[in-house]
Design goal:
Length: about 500
């Protein structure tokens, strides 16, 4: 207990002390009893650097050329603020530039500023979501926000979940939970069903789970890129009749190339009928359930046993922000709890470190919470509206012309290729056109989909305006003539 004469442990910031750069330890850790102007200078310098990086984004290309890297290894003597900031700036010159309006290649939008601040504060607090005594308020925030999000996307009352460092990990955890809940741990012949367009992280999950590649059974998609529910029904019946145990069906709400949504309600009915766990990989699409006006795009999401959500993908929450949400979150503890013999018991049921695969975890929930609070429900809806609006505009510009085959789905992703080109033709066209676009400050990606290279636009960047979409479509349509005229 502090004596009455001692200063209170928590106080308003004091005037900077004159002891420039010298802390109680002689090392650059924050001084616990006085505001250190050197530390404050570094924080302010870094935030100025970031501010100018944001505000000059339009003058740099989305994808910078190779830049000279700063020195890597620590020198014998540590460096001061100015040198640190100069090296930081040097690295930032070579960074991918998501804030450029032409950054349309991937599911990596500009960050919400409150979520940047959330990351900074989470790092400063340096709490650990492993155990409640290492993150008292943040553990409670995490549980409460996961419950709110789970119910907000339509899961039943009492649902909840856990954050994970990325959707790949959320998907892996979902399958490990499903296998455990179905009593199939250690059963080598168990299988997982998904569509042919499902995310590559599922194949990775098979490896981690010790299952052979053939344990992932992919079902054909229809012309719109959605899992064929009739085929799924046949496959489930076939597996039943051969006594092959099924760990889960993974339906995708937003495929990575075109944003297709599998028929969730029909798949849920089949899962119910066969007693199979339904995991929905909603890394792209689940956030659309947060707005009344967009929820229809993921109808049936509420019937899932578990859902992967990636707020890092469209909402602009800084990386990484992914969650695994479950209708029955107690399944997490049932699967992952080991006891944490070196920790005080959890007061709310289960420590963070026993709710998933990760042990020590940063407070990723903080940037999600701050970002969502900053946006508000109206802001969330506006982000979704903007993305869908841009996709509609681009689709209108491209598809109306007839020279491009345009593949879309329910969200803000479009993939396209010129009509009538073979494999080599698509490969050449996509490489040339991507380079042409990059020279104009427009960056698309070049996925190989169903054996052909496409160009793909992800319209989640709020800075992209009509004028950018118009130049994009002019270049794309022009490239079709060239492609048609060139051999191959
Ligand atoms: C991005 C994505 C993932 C993986 O998420 P990461 O955060 O990159 O690990 C999983 N599923 C789908 C459909 C995705 O688009």
């Amino acid at each position: 207990m502090p004596s009455p004469n001692e200063p209170p442990l928590v106080s308003v910031p004091q005037a900077p002390s004159p002891r420039q750069g010298i802390t109680t330890t002689g090392l650059p850790f924050p001084d616990p009893q006085a505001l250190d102007p050197d530390l404050q200078g570094l924080l302010q310098g870094a935030s100025a650097l970031l501010g100018s990086w944001f505000s000059s984004a339009i003058h740099q290309p989305p994808l910078p050329g190779l830049a000279i890297q700063p020195p890597v290894a620590p020198g014998l003597r540590g460096i001061g603020n100015n040198a640190l900031l100069a090296e930081l700036q040097q690295l930032m010159v070579g960074a991918y530039n998501p804030n450029h309006p032409g950054a349309l290649a991937h599911l990596d939008p500009p960050p919400l500023i409150a979520s940047v601040v959330g990351d900074l504060i989470a790092a400063g607090l340096n709490n650990n979501l492993l155990a409640e005594e290492l993150s008292p308020s943040l553990s409670r925030l995490e549980k409460a926000l996961c419950s709110w999000l789970a119910e907000a996307i339509g899961l039943p009352p009492g649902s909840g979940g856990v954050p994970a460092s990325g959707g790949s990990l959320s998907n892996l955890m979902a399958l490990v939970v499903a296998r455990h809940q179905r009593g199939l741990d250690g059963v080598g012949e168990a299988v997982v069903l998904c569509s042919a367009d499902a995310h590559v992280s599922l194949a990775k999950a098979m490896r981690v789970m010790g299952l052979p590649p053939g344990a992932l059974r992919s079902i054909a998609v229809d012309d719109a890129g959605r899992l064929d529910a009739t085929r799924l029904g046949e496959e489930l019946a076939d597996l039943d009749s051969h006594g092959v145990p099924v760990i889960a069906v993974v339906a995708t709400a937003g495929t990575t190339v075109r944003g297709a949504v599998d028929p969730l309600a029909a798949i849920a009915a089949l899962c119910h009928q066969h007693g199979v766990w339904l995991h929905v990989d909603g890394a792209i699409g689940a956030v659309f359930a947060l707005a009344d006006s967009h929820r229809h795009r993921v109808a049936g999401l509420d019937l899932a046993d578990s859902v992967t959500v990636n707020p890092q993908k469209l909402l602009g929450i800084t990386k990484t922000s992914s969650l695994l949400l479950l209708a029955s979150p107690a399944a997490l503890g049932a699967t992952f709890a080991t006891g944490l013999p070196y920790m005080e018991p959890s007061r709310v049921g289960c420590h963070g470190g026993e709710s998933g695969l990760q042990g020590t975890r940063p407070a990723e929930v903080l940037k999600l919470w701050l970002g969502l609070r900053q946006l508000g429900l109206e802001g969330i809806a506006a982000v979704l509206d903007g993305a869908i609006g841009r996709r509609r505009q681009l689709e209108h510009l491209l598809a109306g012309d007839g020279r491009l085959r345009v593949l879309g789905g329910s969200f803000h992703l479009l993939a396209f290729r010129p009509e009538g080109l073979d494999r080599d033709g698509c490969d050449l066209w996509s490489q040339r056109t991507r380079q042409l676009l990059l020279r104009e400050g427009l960056m698309l990606s070049r996925p190989n989909y169903q054996g052909l290279h496409h160009l793909k636009a992800v319209l989640g960047n709020p800075h992209t305006g009509s004028e950018h979409l118009e130049s994009l479509s002019a270049i794309l349509l022009g490239s079709c003539d060239e492609a048609a005229g060139s051999p191959g």
